[in-house]
Amino acid sequence: QSYLDAIAKQDGTINSYITVTAEQALAQARAADELRAKGDAPALCGLPIAHKDIFCTDGIRTSCASKMLDNFIAPYNATVVEKLAAAGVVTLGKTNLDEFAMGSSNETSFYGPVRNPWDINCVPGGSSGGSAAAVAAGLAPIATGTDTGGSIRQPAALCGLTGLKPSYGRVSRYGMIAFASSLDQGGPIARTAEDAAIMMQAMAGFDLRDSTSMDVPVPDYRAALNNDIKGKKIGVPKEYFSAGLHPDIAAAVQTALAEYQKLGAELVEISLPHTELAVPCYYVIAPAEASTNLSRYDGVRYGYRCEDPQDLDDLYTRTREEGFGEEVKRRIMVGTYALSAGFYDAYYRKAQQIRRLIRNDFVEAFKQVDFIAGPTAPNPAFALGEKANDPVTMYLEDIYTISVNLAGLPAISLPAGFSNGKPVSLQLIGRDFDEAGLLAAAHQYQ
Ligand code: GLN
């Protein structure tokens, strides 16, 4: 009830929720009270949570912040939603995001932009901006997010939170509306690494319903939080401190690294030579996959349908013209172009080859070091509207996050200080499936 009260009071300004499931939440909370009284409570019994509105929730609207799905009531739960429910959480509602998770500022939502609780004239980051803003404003203690190119880590960074992007295949994508399937991963957004570890325990694991889910054992994340950081090697890529990085963030990252040295870690200068190709590579691959994934929104099966279609062609064309926002259309056009017969080799195939080179940079680096450290985002939260009309400037906000998705690796963003009253963050990247190592490293710093 206290979270619902806080939402009623503050979310008119923040706009972090698209749907609040108040009645259902109170019913779940009462059931949780009964289980607790019986001494029969599962691990997260009664813990409130908010789900990014990209996870399907049975009987509850799942909009992906698009007019296209404004009327879509999911007929089933995403695996992540189901697993958290089995652990006992109480769902407060569904959080705002960039339309179909395409963006870095949460300004492309059909339901309006989200405001950053630290400065309401600034963006919360994106695309999981609603989840991050909700947790930062105290409108939920924890929230789910998804990260295709930084959408958990960057909003966590801009809102002063801890966000974990798990290894590709660690968390099931079943029931998570697809943006770019080879990059998408769900993960936790929380105040601390300990909270994120508790969430991850419930979210991670093999799922037969996701063909890219990996059958690797899930460790006890909370138990691993105190594993020694002493003697671990942290690689510091020289390419991550180039022009374009805000000086306050560079300084905060250096201070955090000095702290790690005090904790007994060793810093090693490394190189990730293909870093500068990550943005162009991602902005071919992600739109290409998006253009095929979004072909299902045709006005026939579910979602928005235009009024009075004259024929099938008119139905498809007007449904998509009216149902999708500008950024989504831009991605569909870029992706369709990159996949077209005449340009496939020049763009899509080339991007796939570069993706391998980026992955190889990390494989080489992890022969020498246990973690890689750098900034999460090049800038603190920026003003609403500041970059909204300049897609390339917006895409450059993802410079430190997207190579991790291209390589399939896990990474965590954790608060590392402030710039002019706004939070700034450190990012740690780990070896394949070493979420436990990242959570421990973040926990000991915190
Ligand atoms: N900002 C990136 C994009 O717009 C990443 C978004 C995401 O991770 N979902 O594609």
From TrEMBL:
Sequence similarity: Belongs to the amidase family. GatA subfamily.
Keyword field: ATP-binding, Ligase, Nucleotide-binding, Protein biosynthesis
Function: Allows the formation of correctly charged Gln-tRNA(Gln) through the transamidation of misacylated Glu-tRNA(Gln) in organisms which lack glutaminyl-tRNA synthetase. The reaction takes place in the presence of glutamine and ATP through an activated gamma-phospho-Glu-tRNA(Gln).
BP terms from Gene Ontology: translation
Family annotation (Gene3D superfamilies): Amidase signature (AS) domain
Highest taxon in the source lineage: Bacteria
Residue ranges constituting the Amidase domain according to the UniProt record: 1-439
Classification lineage: Bacteria, Pseudomonadati, Pseudomonadota, Gammaproteobacteria, Cellvibrionales
EC numbers, comma separated: 6.3.5.7
Underlying gene: gatA
Pfam families named among the record's database cross-references: Amidase (PF01425)
InterPro entries according to UniProt: Amidase, Amidase_CS, Amidase_dom, AS_sf, GatA
NCBIfam families attached to this UniProt entry: gatA
Entry protein name: Glutamyl-tRNA(Gln) amidotransferase subunit A
